[in-house]
Design a protein that fits this description.
The structure is a single chain. By secondary structure, this protein is mostly helical. The protein has 19 helices and no strands. This is Rho GTPase-activating protein 17. Component of a complex whose core is composed of ARHGAP17, AMOT, PALS1, PATJ and PARD3/PAR3. Interacts with NHERF1, FNBP1, TRIP10, CAPZA (CAPZA1, CAPZA2 or CAPZA3), CAPZB, CD2AP and SH3KBP1/CIN85. Keywords: Cell junction, Coiled coil, Cytoplasm, GTPase activation, Membrane, Phosphoprotein, SH3-binding, Tight junction. It is found in: Cell junction, Tight junction; Cytoplasm; Membrane.
Length: 510
């Protein structure tokens, strides 16, 4: 109690300047002391924020932490969902594979968090809550010991000054000796504590680089975690992508023709065959086919059904205008027109030839240049359109009318602008091209067509389509004679092309 009183008295005297204050720390130590409290505060705040980033429970091992992670719950939910949907569902397969991948990510995350806790969080907590507070505590204790020393020193000096005039010299001498012992003892304690505090501060200062290393370790640990997580994801991506690619039930509308044919192992696109087979059965005598618009809801439903590759289309047989509308939509939504961008200029050039015979021969040459998939589907479509035009007395759809409504969906320029603008720019040429090809379908494509090419539809095969002008004009097809070998036929075709177009277009190779 007396010691505390002496401290308070000494502190008051020092505050008002009536007593000297002993400085025990040099400038370097004072600078370290100023950084200590700030270091403790920022380390404490960083520790708290890092703990908040953890998704597992602090202090738990890898297995326990793994079970409690949100990603683990997501993984389990995906795998349960995949099991419920089964292998017949693509979503079910994807959920199973993704669930397994998420589970691996959860395991990587739990291991990462345990590493962070052990190598970074615990040392940071030790620094903020133990090491620095201990130094600061020792510094406060040193301040008390300095007050004790200053107090003892002041009392000793006061007694020394009073000794010469003391009435009882012997008693005063004894008191001076006692105060001298107290001062020496206080000084000894202060020096010991000062040495300890100075040592701790110097050690802290020398280890600042080591403490800073925790943040390097943090980024290194995060980098390693993300590398492992990325490797885990990349290892499963080929599998999940392969399942996606193997799944045949993909939308046909808006998909490139060759991609659709390859995916479904078909020769003729499903929407083309399905629509034509339905029209052959119920739409050949429907007036205004392809011209009269169908109901929007029925058309949307039919397109969705065709996108799902379903063969259950019985309800649409009674609405041939919806079927015709779906066929037009499919052709219009192809990323590239059925008659191709590459041959656009050739089609237009051939249609501009003034001589009728050479115009037909020019169109044949261009038609023969179509890619195999495009040519097969174009032939299939043309043979049907020619058959449809034979019923024009009833359905009012002559070759000219068919060309007007369907032509702009078969060929357009590869230019920016709306479909209406593109159609307006090429409609005259395209209509004339399609009309000629329909009128001379059997001349362009002499072989018969089995419209039920896939065998999906229960309808007897249809006979070949007669040429509307068969027997009236004798036109030979360049390079089509059966007696010519393939090389001779190819040379003949290019000879005809040179005669018709006046030479080879730049960039073309005979």
């Amino acid at each position: 109690m007396k010691k505390q009183f002496n401290r308070m008295k000494q502190l008051a005297n020092q505050t008002v300047g009536r007593a000297e204050k002993t400085e025990v720390l040099n400038d370097d130590l004072l600078m370290i002391e100023r950084r200590l409290e700030n270091m403790r505060l920022v380390s404490h705040n960083v520790y708290k924020k890092m703990v908040m980033c953890l998704q597992g429970n602090m202090g738990s091992d890898v297995d326990k932490r793994h079970k409690k992670l949100p990603v683990t719950a997501l993984s389990q939910s995906m795998m349960d969902g995949g099991s419920q949907l089964g292998d017949e569902s693509l979503i079910g397969k994807m959920m199973e594979v993704c669930g397994e991948a998420e589970n691996k990510l959860a395991l990587e995350q739990s291991q990462h968090e345990v590493q962070l806790e052990r190598e970074i969080l615990e040392p940071l907590n030790q620094l903020a809550e133990v090491d620095i507070p201990n130094i600061l505590k020792q510094r406060k204790h040193l301040a008390k010991l300095v007050l004790d020393f200053d107090s003892a020193k002041a009392r000793y000096q006061q007694a020394t000054k009073a000794f010469p005039t003391a009435a009882n010299a012997q008693a005063m001498a004894a008191k001076v000796d006692i105060l001298k012992e107290e001062m020496d003892e206080a000084q000894n304690k202060m020096e010991i504590c000062k040495d300890q505090v100075a040592a701790d501060m110097y050690i802290f200062s020398s280890k600042e680089g080591e403490y800073a290393r925790y943040y390097v370790l943090l980024l290194e640990a995060q980098a390693e975690y993300h590398r492992k997580a990325l490797a885990s994801i990349e290892s499963v991506l080929p599998t999940i992508q392969s399942q996606q690619d193997k799944w045949t039930e993909k939308p046909a509308f808006g998909t490139a023709l060759e991609e659709h044919l390859k995916r479904t192992s078909r020769e003729v696109a499903l929407p083309i065959e399905a629509c034509i087979m339905m029209l052959l059965e119920t739409g050949m005598q429907e007036e205004g086919l392809f011209r009269i618009a169908a109901g929007a809801s029925k058309l949307k439903k039919l397109k969705a059904a065709l996108d799902c590759s379903t063969s259950q289309l019985e309800e649409f047989y009674s609405d041939p205008h919806a079927v015709a509308g779906a066929l037009k939509s499919y052709l219009r939504e192809l990323p590239e027109p059925l008659m191709t961008y590459q041959l656009y200029e050739e089609w237009i050039q051939a249609s501009s030839i003034s001589d009728p015979d050479k115009r037909l021969q020019g169109l044949w040459v261009v038609c023969d240049m179509l890619p195999k998939a495009n040519k097969t589907n174009f032939r299939y479509l043309v043979k049907f359109l020619a058959k449809l035009s034979l019923e024009s007395d009833v359905n009012k759809m002559t070759a000219s009318n068919i060309a007007i409504v369907l032509g702009p969906n078969l060929l357009w320029a590869k230019t920016e602008g709306s479909l209406a603008e593109m159609a307006a720019a090429t409609s005259v040429h395209v209509v004339s091209i399609i009309e000629l090809i329909i009128n001379h379908a059997s001349w362009f494509f002499p072989e018969d067509v089995d419209f039920n090419v896939s065998g999906m539809f229960a309808m007897p095969g249809c006979p070949g389509t007669p040429d509307l002008e068969a027997g009236t004009i004798d036109r030979r097809r360049p390079g089509s004679q059966g007696s010519l070998d393939s090389d001779t036929a190819r040379k003949d075709r290019w000879r005809w092309r040179g005669e018709i177009f006046g030479g080879t277009r730049a960039g073309s190779c005979p």
